[in-house]
Structure formats: C-alpha cells, structure tokens
Amino acid sequence: HNAEAPNLEQVFHRMAQTEPNLDHDISWFLLPSYWAKMVVALISFLCFANSYDGDFVFDDSEAIINNKDLRAETPLGDLWHHDFWGSKLSSNTSHKSYRPLTVLTFRINYLFAGGFYPVGFHVINIILHCTISVLMVDVFSILLGGLQFSNKGRRLNLAPKTSLLAALLFAVHPVHTECVAGIVGRADLLCALFFLLSFLGYCKAFRESKEGHNFSVFWVLVSVILGAVAMLCKEQGITILGLNAVFDALVINKLNVLELIQKLLHKDKSLENAGLLRKGLLFRITLLMSGGASILYIRWRIMGTGPPAFTEVDNPASFADSLFVRAINYNYYYSLNAWLLLCPWWLCFDWSMGCIPLIKSVSDWRIIALAALWFCLIGLICQALCSEDSHKRRILTLGLGFLIIPFLPASNLFFRVGFVIAERVIYLPSIGYCILFTYGFSLLSKQAKKKKILAVAVLGILLVNVTRCALRSSQWRSEEQLFRSALSVCPLNAKVHYNVGKNLADKGNQSAAIKYYREAVRLNPKYVHAMNNLGNILKERNELQEAEELLSLAVQIQPDFAAAWMNLGIVQNSLRRFEEAEQSYWTAIKHRKKYPDCYYNLGRLYADLNRHIDALNAWRNATVLKPEHSLAWNNMIILLDNTGNLAQAEAVGREALELIPNDHSLMFSLANVLGKSQKYKESEALFLKAIKANPNAASYHGNLAVLYHRWGNLDLAKKHYEVSLKLDPMAPGTKENYNLLRRKLEQLQKKGG
C-alpha cells in the first residue's frame, strides 16, 4: 500500500523554483541524457579496455584459481557457508568476508569459459564499471539537482551539466583501477551496482501516482532488498540504507540538522514542525533500520560470533598498545585515503608490511596531514550545518555522507580490518568526492570571470586521469608489472619485495629471486613466508646450512607453519639427519592434517631408510588425500617393482592409471613391471603411449628397446636403442645393451651367411 506524505507536491515545486541551479554558472557540455550516458560509457570503457586480456594476478589466485567453490563438483549450497576465499566461515582461519553472490558470478564465468581463462572475468569487470558509471549520471543528477518528477511521473534531470561532469570524474578516477583491472575487485563493482540500484529504487518511492504525491512502501522495501543484495556482494553494501535515510531527511523532508539539534537541546515544542516527525519520514526510517538490523543479524549468525583473525603485519596500528598511537595512525590512514582521491598518482596493490611506518610521536611531521584533513572536514561540516543557503547545506551534507558513510566499515572504528589502506574500498566513497569536487567547481565558476579557462583545466584533469587509468590498467595485466610498479611507491613494504621475488622464482630466475627475498626478510625479520621461500631456493642450490637456519627460524616464529616444517624436514633429510627429518615431517602433518606432499616426502625418507612398509603407507596416505599425486603413485610402483612384488606393483599401477589416465610417467612405470612379468604386448602398448606423450624421454626409448630385446624383436630394439642414445648419449646401461645387441645381430648375420 502507499502511505500519504503531506505537502510533498509543494516540497517538489518549491525545490524546483527557489533552489539555485548549479548548471547556470558553469561552462560545460550540455548533452541530452542519452548522449551523456553514451559518452560516460565510452570514456569509462577506454580507461580500462587494455586490461581485458590481463592475467590472474595477486589475490586472484586464492579467490579464483584455488577456490573450490568455482568448480562444478562443489554443491552450490556450499557458497552460502564459505567465505570469499572458499574457506568455511566456521574455520578459525576464515577472514569472514561473506560474499556469496560475487563468488557465484566467478563460478558462472568459470563454467561459461570452460576453465580458468581470465579474459571473460576481465570483460565482465569492465562492463560492470561502465554500467555503474552510466548509472552515476542519474545518481548525480539527483544528488546535485534534487528530486523532481514530471506530471507523467518521469524523473527530471535538473543538473545535466554538473551530473555529466561528476559522472565523468567517477568513471575516469585512477583509484578505481584495482577494482576494474583486478578480478577480485568484482566484489566492489557488484556491491556498487546494487548500492546505486537501491538508492535509485528508494527515489522511485516518491514518484508521482494518479492519487497524488505519495510514497510507495513497495519501493522502500525493494531498496532494502537491493541493499541486502549489495551486502552479499561485499560488506560495504549495507551502508546504502543509512544513506537512503540521510537522503530522505535532507532532500525529501528538507530537514535542517542544526535547527533540529537546537530544538532538541532546548526541548522546543515546535519540534514536530522541524520535519523529523513529519508523517512518513519516521515510518520509512523505521523500515530502513529494521531491514538493516535484520540483515546484519542474519549475517552475524552465518558468520559466527568469532571475529576474523588478522596479524600485526596486516594492520600494525590496530595492534598498538597505546590508544593515542592507534587514534593518530587511524587518522593518518584516513588522510592518505583522502589524498588518493585528490591525487591518485602513487598507487600500490598492497600498503601493508611497513609500507606506512607507524606514527609514534607528535613530533612526527606527518601529523600535518591529520591537521589538514580535519581542517578541511570541519570546515565542510560547519558549512553543511550552518550555511544559510539550504541548497549548499544539502549538497555538502550529501557529499560528506557519501564520502564518509560507505568508508565506515573500513575505518577500524567498529572492528579491526585486515589492511592499512586498500584502494578498492574507496570505490564507493569516491562518489562523495565527485559531488564535492563538482560543487567546488560550480562555486569557482560562479566567481571566475574566464569560465572557459576553468573548464579547460577540469577537462585537463579528466584527460590526465584517463591517461593514468590506462597506464595503471596495463600494470595490472601481469604480476611482474604490478609487483615492480609497487617498488617505487612502497620500497619499505616487505610484501612487495616478496612478491617480486616469488614472481622471479616462478620464472626460474633464482639468483634475482634470492635478492628480493633477502630484502623482504631484512625489512620484516619475522616474515616467515619469505624465509620459507628463500630456504627452499637455497635447498635446491644445495646451500643446506643457511636453508636450515632460515626454516628453523620460521617455525620458531610461527610454530604451526606446516609448509616450513616440511621443507625443514627435506633439508634435514638431505643432511642425513633422518630422525630430526622424520620429527619435522610429523610436526607438519600435526599442524596440517591433510598434507599429501608431506606424506610423500615422509615416504621418501622411509624408503632411504629401507623401511619399505612405512614408505608404502606414507605414499598411500598421499594418494588418498590427493588421488592425482603422480609422484606418490610412481614411487609405490617402483618400490614394489624393485622389491620383487610385481603383482602388487601391477595392481597399484593399474589403479593409478584409472585415476590419472594421461600420465606418461605412470604408463612408463607400469610398462616396466608388465615387461618383467612377460606381458610383452601390453607393456609395448604402454611404452608406445608414453613415448607418444613424451617423445624426447631417452629412458622411455631405452626401456622399450630392452623390452624388444627380451621379446626377440631385435630390429625394433636396435631402432629404439639408437633413438635413446641420440637423445642421451650418456644414458646408463643403454650403450652396453646396444653393444650387446649389435654383437648378437652380427653373430646372427654370420650364421645366416
């Protein structure tokens, strides 16, 4: 049903007649609504188009490639019980980031693409940003020009110039690059989409109807539901309900906040006339608050009562003992976020791990940034509350509301967050920045004599931002470019050096990787992951002593670091300290129950010690936990073969090939067993299949030649011996076998002659 809102017709009429028009004083493009949206869509597309064929980078690996919730075999229902990264929400290690609708879109991307092909993921992100930017034209026309409908119920755009400018500012802001070019930023994009739809839906509640100027309860409820959907994409989405309430009070009911506060303090009996108790407002705010409280309660029940566990390196200020240090640094972080909106030139994929050293004293010069931030904020708040110009009060309050309220979940005020600064969380607050920038431009234009020069300056800012977006998007195309771009922005960030090192190591450049890993450990002496990776490389380079020292330190700092315990065991095994190695392996398994690689390495240790039963059991555990663990299957077949258990070896080989039918190394191992069991035909078929899959393996040709030699197919044996020797002239045993075959062939020729 519709609830009557008295005098709304007069409110809308007065808004149109008495409030100044921002467009009147600015020199800017005036385009029809359709063309304005086309221009915004085109420019926002141009900014980020070059990211369409980028790789999966940074957090994309964990949220997409390693996230089992994307795969068809995972029941859809699991999405509602898992966090953004695919972990159970009830787990102690969960980040409690509950975004099932975002994960669902990733899953759809994965299914349509038929695998992990990043192009489809990137294209959807670009389309989402273009859609949001187009919606911003309508949103800014309401926020800057007010809400008014024609006699036919169509919303009027009372600020076409300024709404176009603000939408362009939003569309080309470089700080949005992380959300658009980074696939994980899909959460922010979807959240923003439903956030804006919720706002526009709330505005529709005041559309004219045949009965008069009523508000529609239906559209208020739709707005609440869309706010819930926004929150299921990312947590910030819930803040739209608060902004809808602010918009209702300021725009629909023209509430004067300062006047209301004064009347409340003086217990003025005319409070009802102040607007707060005007029929309809309290009812709508009650609906919004009830909806928001219900959504938060359900979210809390799903998440569980335990907060997410973050470490000091993620957000060092939140771990400071002193309340003063925490407060100072939180405010410094706010000032840096504000600076990124004003001057988005220094952008970084990660601002943690020493990137921003803590302020511990008032003598730190960075205190100036806090003072500047609060000077500007207090000035704007005073103008928003005390200005005699109601139009100015409304725009400034809405600008500050959209700047501050969506940022609150990331502010550390209500709960600890897992980052220092994250460019992605500024996506929604940038709406407020665009409002304030555009309003400031209109005020300057009003005072300026040469309005066109000012317009050219703003156009220049837009062009610079477009260029910066394109440049930053290209940096997000690959991990190498992304990580290296951060070295100049955050040289003190250990994670930046770690990621550059990891990228180099993955490409096989171990010498360069060691340099960056060492720098990461120097910057953060407790960086256990850098120690683990550095220890691994040193282990492979046979620098075992230093590798052991690093890995021992890593497990000392973090006793439950299973991967470091396993790698320490591998080093101790190489140093022939078998008892210590065994203990390290079992400690790793204690901290990570399902650890197939550790069982595999434990099996290798037992095999070296001739504890064959224990080795087979360890490898069997590895294959139970990870059925596609080819190395464990191979080692079982080889051990059983070497100990004369050919029947068991054959059974294990057949079981392995059923699970991994295209693994040529398993075909080779089983072919060897079948050859020894004189099942020549089947052995030959497997050897040939293995050679077809991997034609340059000398041992494959050599062992097939041995099979033919035993079988009596001497010409084929000769052919494959020769291929094997061509591929590897130093192949052990092959040359001797080949010489034996040649002598035998010569003898046969003599007898034949």
Short recap of the structure:
With 753 residues, this protein is an all-alpha fold. The chain is 65% helix and 1% strand. Helix 10 runs antiparallel to helix 12 and helix 10 packs antiparallel against helix 15.
Explain what you see.
A two-stranded antiparallel ribbon has the order 1-2. It has helices spanning 8-18, 33-48, 60-65, 100-113, 118-145, 160-171, 177-181, 186-204, 217-233, 239-252, 257-265, 281-303, 323-342, 367-386, 390-404, 430-447, 451-475, 479-487, 494-506, 510-523, 528-540, 544-557, 562-574, 578-591, 596-608, 612-625, 630-642, 646-659, 664-676, 680-693, 698-711, 714-727, 734-752; strands at 2-4, 214-216. The protein has 33 helices and two strands. The protein has a domain at 316-473. Helix 25 (596-608) packs antiparallel against helix 26 (612-625) and helix 30 (680-693) packs antiparallel against helix 31. It is an all-alpha fold and 753 residues long. TPR repeats lie at residues 494-527, 528-561, 596-629, 698-731. It is found in: Endoplasmic reticulum; Membrane. It is an enzyme of class 2 (transferase).
Blueprint of the fold:
Elements: E1 2-4, H1 8-18, H2 33-48, H3 60-65, H4 100-113, H5 118-145, H6 160-171, H7 177-181, H8 186-204, E2 214-216, H9 217-233, H10 239-252, H11 257-265, H12 281-303, H13 323-342, H14 367-386, H15 390-404, H16 430-447, H17 451-475, H18 479-487, H19 494-506, H20 510-523, H21 528-540, H22 544-557, H23 562-574, H24 578-591, H25 596-608, H26 612-625, H27 630-642, H28 646-659, H29 664-676, H30 680-693, H31 698-711, H32 714-727, H33 734-752
Antiparallel strand pairs: 1-2
Helix pairs in contact: 2-5, 2-6, 2-17, 5-6, 5-8, 6-16, 8-9, 8-10, 9-12, 10-12, 10-15, 13-14, 14-15, 15-16, 16-17, 18-19, 19-20, 20-21, 21-22, 21-23, 22-23, 23-24, 24-25, 25-26, 25-27, 26-27, 27-28, 27-29, 28-29, 29-30, 30-31, 31-32, 32-33
Subcellular location: Endoplasmic reticulum; Membrane
Family: Belongs to the TMTC family.
Keywords: Endoplasmic reticulum, Membrane, Repeat, TPR repeat, Transferase, Transmembrane, Transmembrane helix
